[in-house]
Design goal:
Elements (H helix, E strand, L loop, with lengths): L4 E5 L2 E9 L3 E8 L5 E8 L7 H14 L9 E6 L3 E7 L6 H7 L5 H20 L2 E2 L8 E3 L8 E3 L6 E2 L20 H5 L6 H16 L9 H9 L20 H10 L10 H4 L3 H4 L20 H7 L2 H21 L5 H7 L1 H10 L7 E5 L5 H4 L20
Antiparallel strand pairs: 1-11, 2-3, 3-4, 4-6, 5-6, 5-11, 7-10, 8-9
Helix pairs in contact: 3-5, 5-7
Amino acid sequence: MAPTQTTVPCQYRTGKTLGSGTYAVVKEAVHTKTGKYYACKVISKKLMEGREHMVRNEIAVLKKVSSGHKNIVTLHDYFETAHNLYLCFDLCTGGELFDRICAKGQYYEADAAQLVRTILGAVEYIHHAGIVHRDLKPENLLFRTKAEDADIMIADFGLSRVMDENKHILLTEICGTPGYMAPEIFKKIGHGKPVDIWAMGVISYFLLCGYTPFDRDTPREEMQAIFTFSFRLICYCPLAQYWEGVSETARDFVRTCLTIDPALRPTAAKALQHAWISAKTPHFVPDPMSSTGLPMDLLPQMRKAFDAKKTFRKAVLSMMAVKRMSMGAVSPTTPHLLAAELHQFKLSAEEEQTHENSEVIFHHLHGKESERSRPPTPLLPERESKSLPRMF
């Protein structure tokens, strides 16, 4: 029995826009009965025509992992109107990863190791569930609240896939954000869970020095740097100053994750056993200015190494460029669509306001566990829709 669908009055009232992605906008939404706030991903049906499988896949992935791990965002509800599809997630108000680091008064190698350990633990969980994320990057790592001890959350499973371990089928499409994509993705030789470990290597690199190993002036140059594996090595002389406060154990962890051969790259479980993040006593380089052997503060060098806004903007533009390239191979009209109509479709999706008097098709997520793990019902032909056109 598939999850049930019901046409009902809308239980959510949407509000201000929180952000925007390639195919969707994210709005704040409040549940009208409980008063609880959520982040609501609003997807234009018109924009997703011919790509409905992308949304179905994201929901299928989230239904396998939602509520199963405290460091993974939960999909609470999804429903649709005549024009849009709405996915309601945890509202993470604590900000992005690097914003939090920059706002700290001090930042040590042990802090970086703790962050990597937490994120990698969540990656191990989704891998154990048979899922590869494929878009791990700082922008998709959010803090639940502004509290000092707030949980960090992995978000945005739009490019994730459920891997059939029994069929041993690898993925071949190009997707992700260039600076964090593993070389096998560009080579189109087939990829799977190891691409997430590569991304963790890039994230760890950034957490330790403040710049990414494949940072270049353009997305194309980034791709070429990864494809040829000509990244800026830790021992690269002009940048050596940024690694003076980083231990050799931490450097070894990064090198291990950035192993060119995916078959030799560690699994998430194996990476968690690495001495840098498993040792009870933190690894660090003593501060030469301290007579007591305290660890060096990495924050001053990190602040010098990157301009956060420039980095975030560049990552978003890179992601859009790669998705345009990938989707262009599917349909020759896609580049024209993205150039001429993307903004209008997203604007229309953003302008629609849901409230108590709106009628929506509500897709029930909750029930027996066996039902929660099933994929959404197939796309229905337009002629079968009696009231609202359905995507599922």
